[in-house]
Design a protein that fits this description.
Oligomer: heterotrimer
Radius of gyration of chain C: 21 Å
Chains: A alpha/beta, B alpha/beta, C alpha/beta
Protein name (chain C): Glycine/sarcosine/betaine reductase component B subunit
Number of domains of chain B: 2
InterPro entries (chain C): Gly/sarc/bet_Rdtase_B_asu/bsu, Gly_reductase_pB_sua/b
Organism (chain C): Parendozoicomonas callyspongiae
Helix content of chain C: 10-25%
Strand order of the largest sheet of chain B: 2-3-1-4-5-6
Helix content of chain B: 25-40%
Number of strands of chain B: 14
Radius of gyration of chain B: 26 Å
Number of strands of chain C: 25
Pfam family, one (chain C): Gly_reductase
């Protein structure tokens, strides 16, 4: 899926299982937290969790702003 | 007892004319024509060639959807046990039409045998649907192609109307995986393979690891504060009640949902149908999989120009790569039309 | 460690006024067992026992788990150690009796998406390794206030207690066939057969969440570090299934009790190799856990001096990464691997079959493609609930037809493609 989108525009893949993301060929990869909650962590309080989520997205946005020549895990 | 066969031919082999007749639409006649006459003769007593569908190559390819629907209706009416198409040799548009016919037939549970030159795009594009006998690249090889196709049809008849292995059935490998029941269970086969590996004897793996292709990276986004960003997930977060009936595994579709004006995905309004992970944590706060809340805040803060009003979701688990590629293509088209700058995709 | 497994061959299963095993016939007092099971949890709202026999026009769905009735006759511990009462000793020694040919099947309203189908006849029976068993089916429902996790835990307990209750009937029965399984300590094996290579089994367990867990001596597998297991421990129920993976992929408790890789590896033990033992590892939901477990597994394999291993996977998708990671690390450590997996290659087999990949995998065995659809005709009797067809994994909108027949992906059939190599479904290039 991600590769077809990359053909027309930059896309960042926020994925827990980075090896799969690498194998299927995403170019900009940001490691996420866990499979059932890639952008959350139920063990911390809601405020801290929201910040965590924003930080991960920020990392993804920074990846979109970065020029790359090859597959990169941020 | 002979089986019912319907034959598909293009305008040329149906003896209607060359390029000048390529615009002709679908026609059905209740008798064999052209190469079909010979096939019927060579397979006399074994098949009953009940009719021939003909269509101009240009018309078929320019009106693909209508053409396929027409073929479908004809196959439902004529109820063949087997469809034969071509041979199409290396004629590209003819090969594509033969492939489309095969796909329609496959969806109705009917096998299609064809004849094609290996480089005919109809073979490459439609290989899962088509049992194509290898032919030469032009009609000059008709005299060899027809007996080869006859052999494959005979094999189909002798083999309980199944195709068997490519080398048995005399057709070109379709590059697909086919299930069968082995003599021994998987564990016994694994121990045999282990012994061969340990003892330096040759063995054949039953399966090769997949190879995935690559696409070159897109350039960086220059100014995110003016960019429209779209959110996509394979984590299965969709509106409660699953309006599009997306499957919990092996998804055949994706959904497009409006998140216009939403500050966050509220629990209860949104839920996951993904069958591959424990849904409880996600259902308590769907933003943990589809982070609308954080993206909305970043939009308000001006970090990104806009969060796209349409959000795309499907279920990744057990979903064949071929389906996922199809979703990717369609989503990419939507995004391009909407003038989106970049996308964020989350996966569970 | 030496375990004698005594099989009592069961060829008839019926309800009767007393619960007995006589010759090849198992008779069960339905009321007695039903009322016992009802006492297990006060959140059970209904519980019904039925018998489904091979060849009958019966469909069982949605099925949660399949178990085999066994009982410990000699030796420490109990079947399902860590779970059963008085079960905190190590198992795998002494003598165990088995009611061979029958199985306990738990069914009831859908818990997750990942319950499956067992057809006792027709084309579905070819795909299911439990269609040729005499099945005692428990259909149990719970209070609506139960969470899915609680629901699953109640059904799991009911299934295990039934297997234990029925198993106890075999305690004083003379078995028809006794097989002895023995592995000695690594040191003794090496002294006895120094020239033989050392072989092990990497036993990957699904451990993706509360409803996706497998238990080792009652411990949730997602919380373990990879550890050593004597092969005979599995035969005494050291591993139990409480997970939800696609039905075809699930390693049911029955399959753990009868793990085919363990049985096959025993066949050449002491003659062509030394079967040293199994390393149990998990398939967790974070990359950190995956890497730690894979590294730890490889360390244990090296520590045992293994020359070659068979690796089995449970589930598909992200567990493909655990499989690939284990393969790479083990091969890098000089340990030859044979991997057993199944494929999810699309309905026509047209797609890539695994989510992850490595060129280090040289020897692969496949248990078939789970995506092709099969037409299952209507059955005269349905035990359970047919209306779940469209919602289970492998079903889709329109899977269930008006006449009760269904069109579903093979992955909805219990045990059809299970990658411990239990069934004989396979796939080839075509």
């Amino acid at each position: 899926m991600v590769k077809e989108i990359e053909k027309v525009m930059p896309v960042v893949h926020l994925a827990t299982v980075v090896p799969i993301s690498k194998t299927v060929g995403a170019n900009r990869i940001v490691p996420a937290i866990a499979i059932p909650h890639p952008l959350g962590d139920p063990t911390v309080n809601l405020k801290a969790e929201k910040q965590l989520r924003k930080d991960l997205i920020e990392k993804g946005l920074a990846a979109l702003e970065t020029s790359i020549d090859e597959q990169t895990v941020f | 007892m002979s089986i019912r066969v319907v034959h598909y031919l293009n305008q040329f082999f149906a003896q209607k004319g060359g390029e000048e007749a390529a615009h002709l639409g679908i026609e059905y006649v209740e008798n064999p024509i052209g190469p079909g006459v010979q096939l019927a003769k060579m397979l006399e007593g074994k098949i009953d060639l009940v009719g021939t569908i003909t269509c101009g190559d240009s018309w078929f390819n320019e009106n693909q959807e209508v053409a396929c629907e027409g073929i479908r209706e004809l196959l439902i009416q004529t109820k063949p046990d087997l469809v034969i198409t071509g041979p199409a040799f290396n004629a590209g548009r003819y090969g594509m039409a033969c492939g489309n016919v095969a796909q329609v037939a496959e969806n109705l549970g009917i096998t299609t045998i064809s004849g094609m030159y290996p480089e005919n795009p109809g073979h490459a594009v439609f290989n899962p649907y088509l049992y194509a006998v290898e032919t030469g690249n032009s009609a000059a090889s008709m005299r060899k192609a027809l007996p080869d196709m006859v052999k494959t049809v005979e094999h189909f008849l002798e083999n309980d109307q199944t195709m068997g292995l490519p080398e048995e059935g005399g057709y070109m490998p379709r590059r697909v995986r086919v299930n069968f029941f082995a003599e021994e269970n998987g564990a016994k086969r694994a121990v045999d393979m282990l012994l061969n590996r340990l003892e330096g004897k040759p063995f054949t793996p039953e399966f090769d690891m997949p190879v995935y292709d690559r696409v070159p990276p897109q350039p960086a986004v220059e100014d995110l504060s003016k960019a429209t960003i779209a959110l996509i997930t394979s984590g299965g977060v969709i509106p409660a009640g699953n309006p599009d009936r997306i499957e919990s595994s092996s998804a055949s579709k994706f959904g497009i949902y409006s998140i216009e004006g939403l500050d966050r995905l509220e629990a209860g309004d949104w839920e996951t149908v993904h069958g591959g992970y424990d849904p409880v944590v996600c259902n308590k706060d769907p933003n943990r999989v589809a982070p609308v809340d954080a993206l909305r805040e970043l939009e308000k803060e001006g970090r990104i120009g806009k969060l796209h009003d349409e959000y795309f979701a499907t279920v990744g688990t057990g979903t064949p790569v071929s389906n996922a590629e199809g979703f990717g293509k369609e989503i990419a088209m939507h995004l391009q039309k909407a003038g989106i700058t970049a996308a964020i995709m989350t996966s569970t | 460690m030496k375990l004698e497994v005594g099989d009592i061959h069961v060829d008839a299963l019926e309800f009767g006024s007393v619960s007995t095993v006589e010759g090849h016939t198992v008779s069960i007092n339905r009321e007695e067992l039903t009322s016992y099971l009802k006492t297990l949890d006060n959140r059970l709202t209904s519980l019904e026992l039925n018998i489904a026999r091979p060849g009958e026009s019966v469909r069982i769905m949605p099925v949660k788990d399949v178990l085999e009735p066994r009982v410990k006759v000699e030796g420490k511990g109990a079947i399902f150690p860590g779970i059963a009462a008085n079960g905190n000793e190590m198992v795998g020694c002494g003598r165990t009796h088995v009611l061979k040919g029958m199985a306990i099947v738990t069914a009831g309203k859908i818990v997750g998406f990942q319950e499956g189908v067992i057809d006792m006849s027709g084309p579905g029976a070819d795909y299911c390794p439990f269609s040729d068993k005499l099945n005692l089916v428990i259909t149990a429902e719970v209070e609506e206030s139960c969470t899915p996790h609680e629901h699953e835990a109640i059904l799991r307990k009911v299934g295990q207690e039934t297997a234990l209750w029925v198993g106890r009937m075999a305690k004083d029965v003379e078995p028809h066939e006794v097989t002895t399984y023995e592995t000695k300590s690594l040191a003794e094996q090496v002294i006895e057969n120094p020239e033989l290579p050392r072989v092990g089994y990497i036993y990957m367990l699904q451990s993706q969440g509360l409803m996706h867990d497998t238990y080792l001596y009652g411990v949730d597998a997602k919380q373990i570090l990879p550890t050593l297991l004597e092969p005979t421990e599995a035969m005494d129920g050291a591993l139990t299934s409480g997970n939800c993976v696609a039905a075809s992929d699930k390693v049911t408790t029955y399959m753990h009790q009868n793990n085919p890789v363990i049985h096959e590896l025993f066949k050449h033990h002491g003659t062509r190799y030394n079967f040293v033992g199994a390393i149990v590892t998990n398939e967790n939901v974070t990359l950190k856990d995956k890497e730690r477990s894979s590294a730890f597994t490889t360390k244990l394999a090296s520590q045992l001096g293994l020359d070659a291993v068979i690796v089995t996977e449970e589930g598909y998708g992200n567990p493909d990464t655990d499989l690939v990671m284990n393969c790479k690390r083990l091969e890098d450590a000089g340990i030859k691997t044979v991997l057993i997996t199944d494929e999810f290659a699309g309905r026509l087999g047209e797609s890539q079959a695994l989510a992850d990949s490595t060129d280090r995998a040289k020897a692969m065995v496949t248990c078939g493609n789970g995506n092709p659809v099969v037409d299952l005709p209507a059955m005269d009797v349905v035990i359970g609930h047919l209306d779940t067809t469209d919602h289970i994994v492998g079903g889709y909108e329109g899977s269930l037809h008006e006449d009760g027949s269904m069109t579903i992906e093979i992955q909805a059939i219990i045990g059809a493609t299970s990658a411990v190599g239990f069934h004989n479904l396979a796939a080839r290039a075509g």
